[in-house]
Amino acid sequence: MDSDIKEKYLLAGKIGKDAREYAQSLIEPGALFYDIAEKTEQFIRDNGAMPSFPVNLSINNEAAHYTPYEGDKKKFKTGDLVKIDLGAMVDGYMSDTAITVEVGNTGKYSDLIESTSEALNAAIKVLRPLINIYRIGEEIENIITSYGFNPIKNLGGHGINRYDLHSEIFIPNYDDGNDETIKTEKVIAIEPFASTGIGMIHNGPLGNIYIIDAPKVKNQDEIIYKNFKTIPFAERWLAKLMPDDQAYIKKMISAREVSGFPVLKEHNKSMIAQTEHTIMILSDEIIVTTR
Asked: What is the pLDDT of residue 268?
C-alpha cells in the first residue's frame, strides 16, 4: 500500500476512535440524540476529517441506521442499549467503528455487550492474509453463542475502499461456509452483532440516512453530490444547505436517484449489541486503525 494512503487510513482510524470515545462520554439519561450526533460529527470535522457517514445512534432492538433528523427531540432513557456507530474520512479514505453503551450503566446487558467485544477480539486474533472468510465468522459465532446469545446472521462486516464504505467483501458473523480468502493490501471492518432474539433483522422505517443511487446524479452541480459525493448523508445535513429539504429528498427518491437506509430491527423484545473496528491487512502486518 502506498505510504501516503496508509497514513490517511491511519489518521481516519485515530480520529474515528477518538470520536467514538467522545460520543460515549456524552451518553446519559435525558441527552438528546440530536445533540450527541451533531457534537460528534463536529468533533470529527474539528480534528481534520469528515464523517464517513452520519453518526448512527440505534437503541435496544435496533441494530443500525438511525440518526436524528433536523429538530429531533428524542432523548435517551436509563436502560437504553445504544449502538454508537461512526467513522472518519480523510481524502476519501475511511474508518468505521462502533461500541455499545447502556444508558445509566445499570449492568443489565453487560454480558451481551461483552460477547461482541470478545468476539471481535477473537476474530482479529485469527486474522491474516488469505484466511478463509468463514473462519472469521466461526470465531465470532463461537464466542457469542458461548455467552448464550445469537449472532445476527444477516448482518456482517465489509470491505472499505476510497469513498466506498461497503465494498466487495462481506464478513459474516457466523460460519456461512464461504471459503473465499481475504487478500492483502485490503481494508476491512469487522462488526459482530449479538442478539437476545433469534439473530435475524428486518427493515423498519427509514432512519434519516440517504445515499445517491443513480449515476446521472453524479455531477458537480447537484447539491448532494457536490457536498456528499458517494457517501451516505443525513437529512439534517441537507437541511442546513437548502430550504424544504424533505420535499427535495422525496422527489429524489421518487425519481430513484436517491435511496434511504431503513432502520434495521429485531423483534420488539430483543436487545442487540455491536462492536466494530477497521483493520488494514497488509503483506507484513495487521493494523487495527480504530483501537
From this structure: 85
Q: What are phi and psi of 196, to 5 degrees?
A: -80, -5
User: Are 128 and 58 members of one domain?
Assistant: yes
> Radius of gyration of the chain from Cα atoms?
18
Instruction: Provide long-range contacts, Cβ within 8 A and 24+ apart, for 225-229.
Output: 229/92, 229/163
* The three grid cell numbers given for residue 61, joined into one nine-digit string: 432492538
Lowest mean pLDDT among 84-93, 157-166, 217-226, 259-268: 217-226
Residue 46: the pLDDT is 98
Distance CA 82, CA 86 (A): 13
Q: CATH number of the domain that 221 lies in?
A: 1.10.10.10
Which are the catalytic amino acids? 85, 96, 158, 166, 191, 276
> In terms of residue numbers, what domain contains 106?
3-203+267-288
For the entire predicted model, the pTM comes to: 0.95
